[in-house]
Amino acid sequence: MEELGLTAKYRRAFKRTTIADPNAKVRGDLVKRQFNPPVPTTGLCGDITYLRISQGWMYLATVIDPRRRRPRHDASALADRKESAIAQTARKNLKT
Prior knowledge:
There is one protein chain. By secondary structure, the protein is mainly beta. It has a domain at about 45-90. The protein contains one helix and three strands. Strands 1-2-3 form a three-stranded antiparallel sheet, with helices on one face. The longest helix is centred in the C-terminal third of the chain and has 9 residues, at about 85-90. About 5% of the residues are buried.
């Protein structure tokens, strides 16, 4: 490689872009760390997963049932922009 003037391409470390606001109000723990609610679908949570595709990024929002510790198959949404509407769409798709 040296004779041909080639060098390896190194991956750079992930650069964190979010800076926490030291004056921001801390949100309360609404579920009080209770991840096994007594009634199903009363303590749902969500997640947004970034999916890299050839044209850029897609975002998959899912509703997660903490009792089963799995995403709900009936509550997800896919979008090409990361906006709050994707999480709302996933929640609306939820069949209770």
